[in-house]
Amino acid sequence: MSKHAVLYACKYTPVELLAGFGASCELAELDAASFPDAERLGHANLCGYGKMLLERLLADDVHEVVLVSCCDVVKRVYDVLAEEGGLDFLYLLDLPHLRGPEEVALFRERLAALADAYAAYTGSQFDAGAALAAFEPRVTRTDERVTLLGAHATASLLDAVGVMGMPVENLTCTGPRTLAAPPTDLARIEGDGTCTLCEASERDGRPVLDRFLDWYAEALLDQMPCMRMDHVTERSQAVGGPGQLGIIYHTMRFCDYYGFEHAGLRELDRLPQTRIETDGTSQSAGQLRTRLEAFAETLAARRATGMLDASQGGAFMPGMGKAQKANRAAARTGDYVLGVDSGSTSTDAVVVNASGAMVGTAIVATGVRASEAARRAEAEALDAAGIGPDDVSLRVSTGYGRDSIEGMDVSITEITCHAAGAHALAPDARSVIDIGGQDSKVIHLDEDGSVLSFVMNDKCAAGTGRFLETMARTMEMPIDRFCQTGLGWRHEVSISSVCTVFAESEVVSLVAKDTPAADIIHGLNVSVATKTATLARRVGAEPPYLMTGGVARNAGVVSALSDALGEPVATHKDSQLCGALGAALLGLSRLRSTRAAAR
Q1: Which H or E run includes 417?
Q2: For the CA atoms of 481, 487, 488, 492, what is the dihedral angle to 10 degrees?
Q3: Gyration radius (Cα) of the chain, Å
């Protein structure tokens, strides 16, 4: 790192002003699995972004830091850095949250104070040409893209969003700075390094820096505002512009501000939206893959049906990496399609014929190897259908282990597959509730069975089939007897903990008090139902409801969920096969399309 490299964290940082003193500015970024120094020195409830920022700025290669008081977390980071010492230059620039004439004048004074402090530190004089040369032109995009809004996006998060297979515009709080270009009479830089600004100063003796700040303070405040600015309503102008296909809204765990904006954006029906949350670590990005890919599939489906404007450039299609495989599969002469749903607990397979009817199914335990379970499920399903491998023209994988299965032609997320399968099993269903072994999800459908929106719980075992399996082991019962026993409850028992580990402790305590097993199990069922109903309300779910996944066989959970939602929740004899069925049907639709195009 050079002597005058300044690390910063906010788009309101006066990067161009610092460049005028010879500084090169770098956005403070760190993709790490944990933040040991930040957790040792900072408060336990510091948000993930604050921990990331603190961890990066405590590194040995950092010598100069300029922070902006955009939020309380940054102030706490500054306090820790000041207490620790070790930096050659540390400055906190106080940011007005309005941009009226008084605020601009106040901000100008604060910028001048920073300039004085940095000049004294470096011993440099302000070079207007260097400052003006640091400006990057504001770019207005009209290409087809997905817009990422909300809280700071790390490099790993941007990589995760890249799985959608389409351009992404980063308009988060630390995304590209959006200063307007300097006026012509201010910005014209001559070949010898002088500028009209300098010439005017020479004529009347007013310092170049003063003239620069007269314009710069207002320009810096006049960017697209972050959530902490009082003119935040202007951010809605970034929604629904030419070429925008959808919005991904990123919130940070332990940060309340962006949740409010997202709630307001949800009322705008101009574009499909999905919300993601991370904790600032690189680990959280991996959990987002399914929901981001599912969102891409939703956008692709809307494009195909004309629900999104396709006038701004070329089309996109998620999963293009496997498109050639799908096309090769279309050349096969078999009339059957296989769908394999690789879940954490079970692997399900469905074979459909050319008319879309199920002719072979299988449900096997996943065990420790998803690929081996998939091979066994495929063999059993083909055997049940009375066909051989060569009779299958297309193999489609979905579920938790979909990318680990060899020999598949197409991979589709479980969100899209469960929607397609549920629509086939219950065409009137408007909301699909899938509680699987690893996660739970609620999918809101339109009348054609297309995904309108969805929400997932994949960060915690509470509210999933794994939660119930853990509790069954704690009560020393096979899962089937556990489910059956819960139907005989007589008294309400509350399981208050939202954590699986703590809930297990509650169950142990209840057992020690001789609480009837049926009542304890009913309390656990209600706990799962309550968490799932919360997800349903978040996604705007509406009846009729269809429950899918392995937990759909637990009548106690289904009953408790009906009570929690205030509406009956239906199941189907093939509910557990819903994901694999949807995969097969979507594969059949793709096979028909590619064969028709080849004619």
Answers
A1: helix 414-425
A2: 120
A3: 29
Query: pLDDT digit string (tens) for 275-307?
Result: 888 887 776 665 678 888 888 888 887 776 554
Parallel, antiparallel or unpaired: strands 358-365 and 244-252: unpaired
Picking from 77, 58, 59, the residue whose alpha carbon sits closest to that of residue 67 is: 77
Task: Mark out the alpha helices in 277-413 (DSSP H runs).
Answer: 283-286, 289-304, 323-330, 370-385
* CATH no., domain 145-175+227-304: 3.40.50.11900
Segment 10-61, tens digit of pLDDT: 999 999 999 999 999 999 988 888 889 888 898 777 888 889 999 999 999 9
The whole-model pTM stands at 0.75
145, 314 in Cβ contact below 8 A? Answer: no
CATH 3.40.50.11890 assigned to 5-135+186-220: yes
Tell me which amino acid residue 266 is.
Answer: R
Q: Is the sign of the CA dihedral 578, 580, 585, 590 positive or negative? A: positive
Transcribe 538-563 into DSSP letters: HTT--SSEEEESGGGG-HHHHHHHHH
Enumerate the β-bridge partners of residue 551: none
Q: Which residue has the higher pLDDT, 231 or 359?
A: 359
Q: How many CB atoms lie within 10 A of CB 73?
A: 23
Tokens matching residue 517: 């097993």
Q: Which CATH number fits domain 320-426+579-598: 1.10.3720.10, 3.30.420.40, 3.20.20.20, 1.10.10.60?
A: 3.30.420.40
Residue 173 phi, psi dihedral angles, 5° rounding: -65, -20
* Separation CA 417–CA 245 (nearest Å): 22
Strand partners, 352: 337, 358
Closest CA to 506 of 467, 535, 539: 467
pLDDT band at 201 (very low <50, low <70, confident <90, very high): low
Residues 6+ apart with CB under 8 A from 47: 73, 252, 253, 254, 255, 280
Amino acid at the residue 315:
A
- Dist. CA 229–CA 236, nearest whole Å: 13
The reply to whether 5-135+186-220 and 145-175+227-304 are identical in fold is: yes
Non-local (6+) Cβ contacts of 487 within 8 A are 518, 555, 556
Provide the residue ranges of all domains of the chain, joining segments of one domain with +: 5-135+186-220, 145-175+227-304, 320-426+579-598, 433-571
More confident position, 260 or 363: 363
Does 3.40.190.10 match the CATH number of domain 433-571?
no
pLDDT value at residue 310: 37
CA distances from 525 to 222, 349, 403, 490, 595 (A): 53, 28, 32, 14, 47
Instruction: Please answer whether residues 215 and 183 qualify as being in contact, where contact means their C-beta atoms are separated by less than 8 angstroms.
Output: yes
Distance CA 128, CA 111 (A): 15
For residue range 96-115, list pLDDT tens digits in order.
988 889 999 999 999 999 99
- Provide, rounded to the nearest whole percent, the portion of the chain with pLDDT above 90: 37
pLDDT of residue 323: 47
Tokens 């489910």 locate to 483
> In the numeric block, which tokens belong to residue 302?
């809307």
Q: What is the DSSP letter of 254?
A: T
